[in-house]
Specification:
Helix content is about 10%, strand content about 35%. The chain contains two helices and six strands; from the N terminus they run αββββββα. The protein has helices spanning about 10-15, 95-100, and strands at about 20-30, 35-45, 45-50, 60-65, 70-80, 80-85. The longest helix has 9 residues, at about 95-100.
Length: about 130
């Protein structure tokens, strides 16, 4: 029997036991050191990805709030633009489904095809058919 055995490594996908869903909604992470405004970019019953300009460090605990929901969690990873939280207790699937139903997406103006120039000369002009 070896005292120090190397345990098999698992990647993040193998460790996941619940489905993650892409979302896009405003959220706030409330912590003792101050609140952070940001957006949820993915959500599951077990955790969430929170995007913000100044993510907290790994190990920090806080209350993640969005659309009238608040759940306590702990930051398990962080980079320069986002962090991952694991909830203290799994949240109801109903809350995840409800959050996924409404995705806030900011869209710009629709292109006006009349403003797009059509090629008249050059190599690619043969690709454009004229309907005169």
């Amino acid at each position: 029997m070896a005292l120090f055995q190397k345990l098999p490594t698992m990647n993040a996908e193998e460790r996941r036991t619940v489905q993650r869903y892409s979302v896009d909604c405003e959220a706030k992470l409330k912590m003792l050191g101050g609140d952070r405004e940001g957006r949820l970019s993915d959500l599951s019953e077990a955790g969430a990805r929170f995007e913000t300009d100044n993510p907290p460090q790994e190990g920090v605990s806080g209350l993640l709030a969005w659309r009238g929901h608040e759940y306590f969690g702990k930051v398990v990873w962080a980079n320069e633009r986002s962090c991952g939280l694991v909830f203290e207790r799994p949240i109801p699937h109903k809350v995840v489904a409800e959050t996924c139903e409404v995705v806030e997406v900011q869209s710009g103006p629709v292109a006006n095809f009349g403003n797009i120039p059509v090629a008249k000369r050059g190599r690619r002009a043969s690709l454009v058919s004229s309907q005169d």
